[in-house]
């Protein structure tokens, strides 16, 4: 499991480790890790590479200069652009600068940065600011970042791309800019901001270098990066002695007139992800049957018993009086419950519904996108996106629920404050019906007896991984439709179960 720590805790871990180590040790380790990452990125041996290193005024700049010294020693031609006065470098960074000069690194004052785009670089290393930036980059630094972003060579960011908030994944400051890295090597521990909001667009491929800091310096984590290991205990093969009742029942409630496709997508996802029986309860007129998935049973929602199935409420539900009556019944049912789409919008409008969610016997699973989350918390969508981790935690606490805050780097949160950041997925998921498919996956796993937390983690991971697999095959991201995700999710889920069974032999 890859733990995620906020910047405040990272600083405490670093300071505690520094007190137990000889001076300069962590910078040497960071420089070595950065050098090794750079060598993995370079397409050719280092003796033929020309590398530009951006060194800022703090220890992030020192890490970059240490890497520059190592790469120059390995035979690369290294130019270090110093975005600071030499006299302002901290002690360890000044040591790294001297070492860089001893190994032949060429120094370029920041005032000459306009010359860099005339050269061919095999790699740029960003050591401008790391996690230390608190205000928007402006003036010459802004122009420098824009110049780097216009280059076509790989860019390796050290710790975090300069200009990106490591906790939130938001570009710092109004009208801010940040380095767009192809790769990031982050030090000590992973950071949420590299994987959510703008983070994936700026951080590129992320790896972690712990700098050999011993475990006792780390407090217990409260956040993790999503991975199949987090739900592996429930990837169980099916017994031969099974029947459809062994795998539970899902009822999808929604499908007001003009929106019948939403519950159909959720129901198709549920049946393809292993629910034994799936019904669709339509708000208005029920379909006779689904010709694309005739295994689904179509009913009028008002005629259904809500006590015997996992309920997925909201896809295409609408906001009518009939929809409100159905949601009230749903919230009163003593069943596992997934709340999506218009169910969330109705809850945001009705304080009575909010109280029902908070006090359910079985806590609900809620799957809002940022605008739905904003309505539930009474803030703007921009406020949600400004700190997605905090917003997901606030929703989970307020509604005593497991919350999946959808978007780039979906956040899964529960009421005790624990969060998981999901790194699978891509822009293909930004299409109509994608969220309905996710809610159906959640319902199917709950129906098969998965605990709520692990069901949420698995559903989000599978949903994103299906989009990644399709894009890797050349299908999308442009024009990929929600229905195309379903068979790929099924294949991935079965593959995980097989792999888990084989590993246990």
Automatic annotation (TrEMBL):
- Give the enzyme's EC designation: 4.2.1.136, 5.1.99.6
What SUPFAM superfamilies does the entry give?
Ribokinase-like (SSF53613), YjeF N-terminal domain-like (SSF64153)
For this UniProt record, give its keywords in alphabetical order, as a comma-separated list: ATP-binding, Isomerase, Lyase, Metal-binding, Multifunctional enzyme, NAD, NADP, Nucleotide-binding, Potassium
Q: Where is the YjeF C-terminal domain?
A: 227-496
Q: Where does (6S)-NADPHX bind?
A: 59-63, 130-136, 159, 262, 316, 369, 436
**CDD domains per UniProt:** YXKO-related
The record's listing under Pfam families reads: Carb_kinase (PF01256), YjeF_N (PF03853)
PROSITE patterns for this protein: YJEF_C_3, YJEF_N
**UniProt keyword NAD present:** yes
User: Does the keyword Metal-binding belong to this entry?
Assistant: yes
Relate the protein's function as given in its record.
Answer: Catalyzes the dehydration of the S-form of NAD(P)HX at the expense of ADP, which is converted to AMP. Together with NAD(P)HX epimerase, which catalyzes the epimerization of the S- and R-forms, the enzyme allows the repair of both epimers of NAD(P)HX, a damaged form of NAD(P)H that is a result of enzymatic or heat-dependent hydration. Catalyzes the epimerization of the S- and R-forms of NAD(P)HX, a damaged form of NAD(P)H that is a result of enzymatic or heat-dependent hydration. This is a prerequisite for the S-specific NAD(P)H-hydrate dehydratase to allow the repair of both epimers of NAD(P)HX.
How does this chain assemble?
Homotetramer.
Family from the record: In the C-terminal section; belongs to the NnrD/CARKD family. Belongs to the NnrE/AIBP family.
The molecule here is called Bifunctional NAD(P)H-hydrate repair enzyme
Q: Which source organism does the UniProt entry give? A: Paraherbaspirillum soli
